[in-house]
Amino acid sequence: MVVGEVKTLIFGAGGMLGTDLCSVFPDAVALKHSDIDITVRDFVLETIEMIDPDVVINAAAYTDVDGCEDNKELAFDVNGKAPGYIAQGCFLVGAKLVHFSTDYVFDGSKEEYVESDITGPINVYGKSKLLGEMSVIENMNNYRIIRTSWLFGHHGRNFVETMLNLSGEMDAVSVVDDQFGKPTFTADLARKTTEIIGLVPGVYHITNEGICSWYDFASAVIGNAVPCSSDEFLRAAKRPEYSVLINTKTAPMRHWREALVDYLIFDGQGC
Ligand SMILES: NC(=O)c1ccc[n+]([C@@H]2O[C@H](COP(=O)([O-])OP(=O)(O)OC[C@H]3O[C@@H](n4cnc5c(N)ncnc54)[C@H](OP(=O)(O)O)[C@@H]3O)[C@@H](O)[C@H]2O)c1
Prior knowledge:
Layout: E1 2-3, E2 6-11, H1 16-24, E3 29-31, H2 41-51, E4 55-58, H3 65-70, H4 72-93, E5 96-102, E6 112-113, H5 124-139, E7 143-148, E8 151-152, H6 159-169, E9 173-176, E10 180-181, E11 184-185, H7 186-197, E12 202-205, E13 212-213, H8 214-219, E14 225-228, E15 244-245, H9 256-265
Parallel strand pairs: 2-3, 2-4, 4-5, 5-7, 6-15, 7-12, 8-11, 9-14
Antiparallel strand pairs: 1-2, 10-13
The structure holds NADP nicotinamide-adenine-dinucleotide phosphate (NAP).
NADP nicotinamide-adenine-dinucleotide phosphate binds at residues 12, 14-18, 33, 36-39, 59-63, 78, 100, 102, 129, 148-151, 156.
């Protein structure tokens, strides 16, 4: 539990990012969804008070972007209100909080977004995650909100895995070529989190380097991707056209193509 005398608590430890965080913080108290429901305020506060951590990392979220459209209340409870309960607990025990948010807090009408840019989510997931950021900020000062994008990792369903599966099942896999972002390897993000904890409180944009469309990303993984437009591939939730996060505060991480090679050749171990 003690890493260099720092006691760390992780919420969402069973998720894609959470599992990699557990590897980077092997002594952390790691709580999965089956251990705690972060929407139950009293339980969250009691747990944080009992563990009395120095650092809390919240990687728990309801991340089904299309599902959020149909399950609005759940989205706002998990992504919007619960981070506020965690922040209240952190405030009570004097812990730092690292909370993960998303590029989807932006509307995508601008090509690139720095940390101070005005938000304007266009789907329920983005709105709920923005509420989560606000719930953290209004309950404590000692927070680091990490906005990230297009995650892929060994411990959850993700775009790379989907492409590999579809590629084997279909002659051609249609992938949109009019939405742009920055793919990010969860193992890199988890390692970078150790550095962010030591920086000043605030909002951070942390992704792998390199901007691409979903079609470009797919083409780096499979040989039978074909481009299509978002209009041809309708989904429940609208997606921003550009959700490119620019990091103005810390050293950049490596290019997503380099990270993808590691992802594809290395079978990750988690906790
Ligand atoms: N995935 C992406 O492309 C992406 C992009 C930008 C930002 N992010 C953000 O990055 C963070 C990590 O994402 P991820 O992809 O690792 O997500 P994930 O794999 O879906 O993991 C989220 C975890 O949270 C748990 N959870 C859901 N509701 C909960 C609740 N009420 N109480 C406790 N735990 C609960 C989930 O458990 P169950 O599965 O059992 O429900 C799951 O283990 C999130 O904040 C997400 O919003 C993700």
